[in-house]
Amino acid sequence: MVYPEIRENVAETSAQGDRSENAGYREARRRQAKTISRICFLQKVLENSRVIDPAALPKDRVCLLSRVEFTNLSTNNRMIFEIVSPHEMNLEAGKISLKSPIGAALMGKKVGEIGSFFIVYFVTTETGSLQ
Fold first, then answer.
1. Structural domain boundaries in the chain
2. Long-range CB contacts (< 8 A, 24+ apart) of 69-73?
3. Looking at the DSSP assignment, which residues form a beta bridge with residue 124?
4. CATH number for the 52-131 domain, one of 3.30.479.10, 2.30.110.20, 3.40.20.10, 3.10.50.30?
5. Residues 84 and 94 sit within 8 Å (Cβ to Cβ)
6. Mapping DSSP to helix (H, G, I), strand (E, B) and coil, where does residue 70 land?
7. From residue 37, how far is each of 14, 21, 31, 34, 58 by CA, in Å?
8. Which CATH number does 3-47 carry?
9. Count of CB atoms situated within 10 Å of the CB of 69
10. 10 Å Cβ neighbour count for 105?
């Protein structure tokens, strides 16, 4: 839902009577607050963003926007990722954050260099407990 629609929804539910007992109004206000918070966050990200010239980045070592191919030596599993900022991370698209355990371990490495990292993962069971 976009902000103008949310604002309209707040106005509609507000007109339905007593706000203290109006669950629709409270829900609309909650969505409005969440949307405003997201807008403020994105504005801060844009204020602190800068355009990076890929040609100016080092080609001899892993850095932001590098496409890396590496092999898990214990499983022989080969993976290919692009190192991106935390805001652009998308594992399904093959993009990992430079602040992730893998990204941080690879930053600054040269071709053929061995990097090591430890990843902790949890599996949630049907009962909701962690294994």
1. 3-47, 52-131
2. 70/106, 70/115, 73/114
3. 130
4. 3.10.50.30
5. no
6. strand
7. 21, 25, 10, 5, 36
8. 1.10.287.180
9. 9
10. 17
- Contact between 102 and 117 under an 8 Å Cβ cutoff? The reply is yes
The reported pTM is 0.61
For residues 11 and 4, give the distance between their C-alpha atoms in angstroms, rounded to a whole number. Answer: 11
Q: What is the DSSP letter of 109?
A: P
* Residue 95: per-residue pLDDT: 95
- pLDDT tens series, the chain, 131 aa: 576 787 787 777 777 766 667 778 888 888 889 989 999 999 998 998 888 898 888 889 999 999 998 887 778 888 899 999 998 999 899 999 999 988 988 899 988 887 777 766 655 566 554 45
